Please model this.
Amino acid sequence: LKLLLFQLKLALLFAVIFIGVPTLAIFGVSLIINQPFNSTLELVINDLFRFSPDIGPELFLGLVGFGIILLLVWQIANIYAMDRESLNVEYGALDGLGYGFARLVDFIITIILLSLLIAGGGILFVIPGILLTILLTPYTIYTFVSEGKSGFDAIIHTLEYTKSHIATLAIRWIAFNIPVIAILTLLGGTTGLLVWTLYFTVILNPVL
Model:
């Protein structure tokens, strides 16, 4: 129940910060120029596209990038909450959000290194790539949060924890991934990537 309340409060904070603040800013501008809110919003959008007629693709990519950052912060904050819950330590949505943003860069670096390591193992030798995937994904993220490790330090510490449980982890990985990968292969393209991102962030990490 406490984790559920944390999720709701975190969602509210995201809404306030990333929707409420821009809305208040536009509302303030509408008061200054003495125009209705809708007219002011239309003016802002028109000025944005007038500044650069080709801003559409850039704006879309910017929004996608912004969405990915939000997902990463959300993931860090949730693991932070689960870690604090397991330790029976008090935590709040503001704490989780602050922690997520504070360690965002370290998290991105860790994920990039992890991805390169797994991809390299998969390209050079398929079996090592699969083993690294089973041993490191998604457990490195928990080491990153619970022990404050990052980069290769987090990866190495994760291997120390998981290497003696390879059989159990392999069964879990197969059970949760093979059916989903088959479905996503049929979906293909952007739809498959989106579904996988949501599945990995919302379902797979908490379960594994």
User: Anything to note?
Assistant: The chain is about 85% helix and 0% strand.
